[in-house]
């Protein structure tokens, strides 16, 4: 899971401790209770933006954030490589059975010289992060288990007769480790399947 971004006030403190106090990255990290890598990353971003201490007169938090975290450069939008409509992609992904691979294949079918799958997924995630901020949740090990039925039923085939039996897929996942346990459950009714899955 990505590290949560420090507040602009704390980033200002990183810059002040480095440039005014002359502290090392390690000492700054210990002082603020963050990792050395976090401090190094913010100092690197400040250096690339041409910032030191004191900050330019009148620089507010929004201005500082724009300098330290510039928006990713948009891919060139030549007629042969149009960028997908991300709002449409997000809307389609809410439909049952629609996957990113399917949407990317549709995009490539209409744009044979279009962008690759990795770019498609990475840019979509970046767009989602800007379009709607998400609430990060921290799960301690063993604290929570998330359970639900997964999508459509699946067919389980009898190896002797070859008869297909519809089964619901019950899935339980640990919050911290993301270890999951799927369980195929015969459709004896939603309440019974839920109880059987939860008991196991």
TrEMBL record:
Residues 11-93 form the HTH IS408-type domain. One of its GO terms (molecular function) is DNA binding. InterPro entries: HTH_IS408/IS1162_type, RNA_pol_sigma70_r4_t2, WH-like_DNA-bd_sf. Gene3D superfamilies: Winged helix-like DNA-binding domain superfamily/Winged helix DNA-binding domain (1.10.10.10). GO terms for biological process: DNA-templated transcription initiation. PROSITE patterns: HTH_IS408. This is Sigma-70, region 4. It comes from Neomesorhizobium albiziae.
């Amino acid at each position: 899971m990505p590290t949560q971004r420090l507040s602009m006030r704390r980033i200002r403190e990183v810059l002040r401790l480095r440039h005014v106090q002359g502290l090392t990255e390690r000492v700054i990290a210990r002082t603020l209770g963050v990792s050395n890598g976090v401090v190094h990353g913010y100092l690197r971003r400040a250096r690339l933006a041409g910032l030191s201490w004191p900050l330019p007169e009148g620089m507010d938090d929004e201005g500082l954030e724009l300098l330290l975290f510039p928006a990713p450069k948009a891919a060139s939008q030549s007629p042969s490589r149009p960028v997908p409509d991300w709002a449409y992609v997000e809307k389609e992904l809410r439909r049952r059975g629609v996957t990113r691979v399917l949407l990317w294949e549709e995009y490539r079918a209409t744009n044979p010289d279009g962008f690759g799958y990795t770019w498609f997924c990475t840019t979509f995630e970046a767009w989602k992060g800007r379009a709607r901020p998400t609430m990060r949740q921290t799960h301690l090990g063993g604290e929570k288990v998330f359970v639900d039925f997964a999508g459509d039923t699946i067919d389980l085939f009898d190896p002797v007769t070859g008869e297909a039996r519809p089964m619901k897929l019950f899935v339980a996942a640990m919050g911290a480790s993301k270890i999951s346990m799927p369980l195929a459950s015969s459709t004896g009714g939603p309440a019974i399947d839920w109880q059987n899955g939860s008991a196991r």
